Amino acid sequence: MIEVKCTWIPGTLDMLQLRAGNRHGRLSVHELRRRFGMGAMNSMYLIGRFQTLAEPGALTGLALS
Q: Which domain of life is it from (predicted)?
């Protein structure tokens, strides 16, 4: 399992900074909802961040560096 954390990119309304383990990337709110569901969206809009544990397969196709 990999720890996944998302926070808003300042100055945007639909882009998130993604940290998965020690890798970083960007993610749209639409992609967040598709991969992690409405609970993730609720967390972003109500708390301003989202954190979960995910299988490595859930992160395939993301541009992480």
A: Bacteria
Beta-sheet strands, E only, within the chain: 2-8, 15-20, 23-28, 49-54
Rounded to whole angstroms, how far apart are CA atoms 65 and 11? 22
Q: Tens of pLDDT along 13-50?
A: 999 999 999 999 999 999 999 999 999 999 999 999 99
7 or 61: which leads in pLDDT? 7
Give me the pLDDT at residue 60, please: 87
The beta-carbon contacts of 14-23 under 8 Å, at least 24 apart in sequence, are 16/44, 16/50, 18/62, 18/64, 20/54, 20/59, 20/62, 20/64, 23/64, 23/65
